[in-house]
């Protein structure tokens, strides 16, 4: 699934104005509600495992923290709707409406997320900020992890990427938190298993 395909899936049929709440005319379907604090490795793997076993059952994801990149990362795994936990505090009936929408085959994202993804998909220079569907890490995080795999120090990585050592430290912290690991070797092992290191090498070769 490409980023453009994700954006296409968020576009209403019939040329209607693009919104973050999209109805559909497909047959009713089953769904499950999954909750998470953030779209980290545990959440990503749970969604992928659910989709592998039940591809016809949609997911309504209720999550504390979520960004546009996270939406793209889980897009291939049957996620029909995403709701921020804070939204439920402001609108207690929201989840029931979203469940009804998911049953009808519709889609729903937090306000502004859909338009952000559609805009980025239409502008090649911005696509890199969102990453690729199914890939948990952001491109900027993968860039750092590839150089970690090459054995570079924080200073060496900063010099290679034109960043400061503090920016690299912050990125590594985010990577560790997203993957649920505590050491560089564990993060590199995950990237290797996910094929991210080889994908980056192929990209650089072009």
TrEMBL record:
Pfam families from the UniProt entry: GerE (PF00196)
Record organism: Streptomyces vulcanius
Signal peptide range: none
Domain HTH luxR-type: 130-195
UniProt KW keywords: DNA-binding
Top-level taxon: Bacteria
Protein name, per record: LuxR C-terminal-related transcriptional regulator
């Amino acid at each position: 699934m490409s980023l453009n395909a994700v954006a296409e899936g968020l576009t209403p049929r019939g040329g209607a104005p693009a919104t973050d709440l999209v109805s559909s005319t497909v047959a009713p379907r089953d769904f499950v509600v999954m909750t998470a604090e953030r779209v980290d490795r545990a959440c990503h793997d749970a969604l992928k495992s659910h989709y592998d076993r039940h591809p016809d059952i949609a997911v309504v994801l209720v999550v504390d923290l979520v960004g546009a990149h996270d939406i793209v990362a889980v897009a291939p795994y049957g996620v029909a709707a995403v709701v921020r936990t804070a939204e439920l505090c402001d609108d207690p009936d929201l989840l029931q409406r979203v469940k009804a929408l998911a049953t009808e085959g519709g889609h729903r994202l937090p306000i502004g997320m859909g338009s952000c993804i559609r805009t980025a998909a239409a502008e090649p220079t911005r696509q890199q900020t969102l990453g690729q569907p199914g890939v948990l890490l952001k491109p900027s995080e993968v860039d750092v992890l590839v150089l970690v795999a090459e054995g570079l120090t924080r200073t060496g990585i900063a010099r290679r990427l034109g960043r400061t050592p503090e920016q690299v430290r912050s990125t590594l912290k985010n990577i560790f938190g997203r993957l649920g690991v505590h050491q560089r070797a564990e993060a590199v092992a995950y990237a290797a298993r996910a094929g991210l290191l080889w994908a980056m090498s192929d990209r650089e070769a072009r």
